[in-house]
User: Which sequence fits this backbone?
């Protein structure tokens, strides 16, 4: 009886995780700019993977599967935000983001205070940011 209940719970985790991963994939394809695509690629995708790994661990119920799932969860939680952050900063510095719809630009203020400016504002320059002077 307990095995059947755990199988159903595992299947529900797998189904929910699949829905989140599908939503993330649709967001990456359908969203209009880099920042919203990065949001779709990191937040629901990571949560979907966590649900899928939990469902696999609950369904298989062996120690090595549970430990491997936990290791994968920890690594995913540690690396996905960092990679998304670095991609977002690169997109910002190369002017590949939609600044018309942004309400707050804290990174621009920080970069300006640090001595960086947008080279796209200078005639004859590329779209990268560089130090002043």
Assistant:
């Amino acid at each position: 009886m307990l095995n059947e209940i755990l199988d159903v719970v595992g299947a529900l985790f797998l189904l929910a995780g699949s829905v989140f991963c599908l939503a993330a994939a649709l967001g990456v394809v359908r969203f209009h700019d880099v920042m919203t695509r990065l949001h779709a690629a990191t937040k629901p995708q990571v949560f979907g993977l966590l649900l899928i790994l939990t469902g696999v661990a609950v369904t298989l119920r062996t120690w090595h599967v549970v430990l491997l799932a936990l290791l994968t969860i920890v690594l995913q939680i540690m690396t996905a935000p960092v990679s998304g952050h670095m991609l977002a900063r690169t997109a910002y510095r190369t002017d590949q983001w939609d600044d018309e719809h942004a309400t707050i630009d804290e990174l621009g203020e920080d970069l300006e205070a640090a001595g960086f400016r947008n080279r796209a504002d200078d005639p004859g320059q590329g779209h990268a940011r560089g130090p002043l002077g």
Q: What stands out?
A: The two ends are 73 Å apart (CA to CA). The first helix runs from residue 2 to 30. The beta strands are 116-118, 129-131. Confidence is low (pLDDT under 50) at residues 126-133.
